Amino acid sequence: MFNSATFATHVQSVDAAVTNHDKGSSLEELSRYLFNCIDGIEVRETNINGPAEEVDLLLWNAKTTQVFQPWDNLIPVECKNWSTPAGAHLIDGFAAKIRLKHLTTGIFIAANGVTGDFVNGDNQNRGAVYRLHEHLTRDGIRIVVVRMDDLRGLNDLNDFIELIKDRFCKIYMHKVF
Hints:
Helix content is about 45%, strand content about 20%. The protein is an alpha/beta fold. It has a single domain (about 5-170), classed as Trna Endonuclease, Chain: A, domain 1, CATH 3.40.1350.
């Protein structure tokens, strides 16, 4: 069950984190809290270290919440609490993890968003935004991007679900935010 005070505490932990470890773990904890509040979504594993990849969170999707019905039963989540936008190489790596497991959808939570600006003309194979488009059109891999500013603006769980729905729809319009 979503609790505003608990959510605010998680956001404060992300904002106060100083070390790389604390930055990463606080964003993962915030993400875990939000996803576990959604009906039919359950964080099944965290920090999965496979032979060729690491996944921060692995969600089980029982497909009971409407926005998640067209998604896979397993949803990988990558969390990057960096001071700069995440680059194309990180999107490519995450897409490779999704493809390797024969999945189609993942969630990329990047504290400061991702690089590139496909919508405004930066479509010269530069930036993560362009790579998101490429992975969709070439392989059908859908990656939803969420920023900390998005999360700070949430008032309740429905806001989070609407954010995910909006970002999922915008993938097909080649928009990230």
